[in-house]
Amino acid sequence: TIAVAEVKITAIEAHQKVDNLACKTKHRKKELEHKLATEQAERERVEKENQKRNQELAEQLEALRPEKFKKEAADEQAKKLRKFAELKEEKQNLTRKLFF
Questions:
Q1: pLDDT for position 76
Q2: Would the pTM of this model clear 0.90, i.e. be above it?
Q3: Position 44 pLDDT exceeds 80
Q4: At a CB cut-off of 8 Å and minimum separation 6, what does 44 contact?
Q5: DSSP per residue over 15-83, as a string?
Q6: CA-to-CA distance for 62 and 50, rounded, in angstroms?
Q7: What whole-number percentage of the chain has pLDDT above 70?
Q8: What residue spans carry the region label Disordered (predicted)?
Q9: What's the confidence (pLDDT) of residue 58?
Q10: 100 in helix, strand or coil?
């Protein structure tokens, strides 16, 4: 009977250990699920911020394109005016040489 009682005690202790392990496992699973949900929420928040920033940068770039075009056009116009002035001066010099 003592041996039977010891076996019962050992079985009860083993059952308690299994229950404790199951409880710890369940608690750890909930912790990990919470951590995963938190990380996913953070990832989504960062992704939204990145999308917003990308949109802002795209809008800024789009706004700069006309300015760049205007600057390039102004630079091209300035080059043409310089070339015209050079040709006009050259014509005047040739005209002077021709008549003097």
A1: 93
A2: no
A3: yes
A4: none
A5: HHHHHHHHHHHHHHHHHHHHHHHHHHHHHHHHHHHHHHHHHHHHHHHHHHHHHHHHHHHHHHHHHHHHH
A6: 18
A7: 100
A8: 32-54
A9: 94
A10: coil
